[in-house]
Amino acid sequence: MTKDIPEFSLQRMPVYLNYLRSLPDDGTYGYISSGAIAQGLGLGEVLVRKDLAYTGCAGKPKVGYPRAELIRALEKFLCVHDKKNAVIVGVGGLGRALLSYGGFVNYGIELACAFDNDPAKIGTYIAGKPVLSVADLREGCRRCGAILAIVAVPAQAAQTVAEQLKDAGIKAILNFAPVQIAPGDSVRVINIDVAANLAILASML
Amino acid sequence: MTKDIPEFSLQRMPVYLNYLRSLPDDGTYGYISSGAIAQGLGLGEVLVRKDLAYTGCAGKPKVGYPRAELIRALEKFLCVHDKKNAVIVGVGGLGRALLSYGGFVNYGIELACAFDNDPAKIGTYIAGKPVLSVADLREGCRRCGAILAIVAVPAQAAQTVAEQLKDAGIKAILNFAPVQIAPGDSVRVINIDVAANLAILASML
């Protein structure tokens, strides 16, 4: 299903889900109109209707979308209830911060373990997650059945790590290393270059 | 100039710059073709030509782009040589990691200082940057002439912080809080929801 949706629409799905989940449960928002959602998120109303149509949840004329139902539809769309295990490679400041970040459970994602090549870190626990040696990447990913990985290693190590993750059966990588990685066609990649995003913002001014 | 460029093309500009900077300076890459760049980055050649046309740097038929010149054009496009000050609000694990991250200087961005509301953190230095009280946000931003801000606070605090940053003269915000913020039309925002990006990757599988 999600294969047919434009990337920008897909990117907005978690935004809709977060917003609808954030509304009070006092009954005020039993139904919510596309206009109200558009206003709440600063988006166009037509855009919101088009995006939400992909969830298969239909809004009622003059009433809007049944909120609980729309939330369930978005959760289903984002496979929130299919538990997925993820691993983090690179336990520097960022990897450490991500291990302590609680937001993944909202999407059915569990950070199972982390990998690093620093002997001082291997064998320790961060936020209750074990830090294993990158030498055990393949076995570690297999054992916890991880299909997702976060790469938070230095740029020069990213490509090698990406290839090792592919060999370990990882299907999708979120890459924080400020370099393009190409693990191969079978692995999906989203790159997040924090400095580049800030530079892009600056160049828009 | 950058106002007329499609967002996806703009997003790729730092990718081209990183790639061209990463090539060896032994003379092998005095000139580089759009095909070579496309192959190196796993992009389409036509796409690469279209993107690079926005930089105003012209490639020579059968030879390619003069690499040094193309790097300068991309740097100019991304305003890399205009020094810009940025601040971080929220010195949790992520804020701490970003303060220690060296990649910003590659884009002419200097992290001037950080803000937090935790008395235990206020007055300390992280990676050589002072942590000030959010109560001094306005004065702190003004004093260092910051126009960029990174928001790394909990979701429930993000909107208030965004409004305070607008009042403090900030023109663009990189938001890591897992919630939409609306500081007002005069402030550009890019949201980075790490968990959401991982969920999007998972839903593509």
For this entry, give a set of tags:
2 domains; 18% strand; Arc Repressor Mutant, subunit A; seven-stranded mixed sheet; two-stranded antiparallel sheet; 8 helices; Rossmann fold; 205 residues; 9 strands; alpha/beta; homodimer
Topology, please?
2 copies of one chain form a homodimer.
Chain A: H1 7-22, E1 31-32, H2 34-41, H3 45-53, E2 65-66, H4 67-77, E3 84-89, H5 93-100, E4 109-116, E5 125-126, E6 129-133, H6 137-144, E7 148-151, H7 155-167, E8 172-175, E9 188-191, H8 194-204
Parallel strand pairs in A: 3-4, 3-7, 4-6, 7-8, 8-9
Antiparallel strand pairs in A: 1-2, 5-6
Question: What report would you give on this structure?
Answer:
The structure is a homodimer of 205-residue chains. Chain A is of the alpha/beta class and 205 residues long. The first copy, chain A, folds into 2 domains: 2-77, Winged helix-like DNA-binding domain superfamily/Winged helix DNA-binding domain (Arc Repressor Mutant, subunit A); 84-198, Rossmann fold, CATH 3.40.50.720. Helix content of chain A is 41%, strand content 18%. Chain A has 8 helices and 9 strands. The first copy, chain A, has helices at 7-22, 34-41, 45-53, 67-77, 93-100, 137-144, 155-167, 194-204; strands at residues 31-32, 65-66, 84-89, 109-116, 125-126, 129-133, 148-151, 172-175, 188-191. In chain A, the strands form 2 sheets. A 7-stranded mixed β-sheet of chain A has the order 5-6-4-3-7-8-9. The longest helix of chain A has 16 residues, at 7-22. Chain A is elongated and about 60 Å long. Chains A and B meet through α1, α5, β8, β9 and α8 of A and α1, α5, β8, β9 and α8 of B.
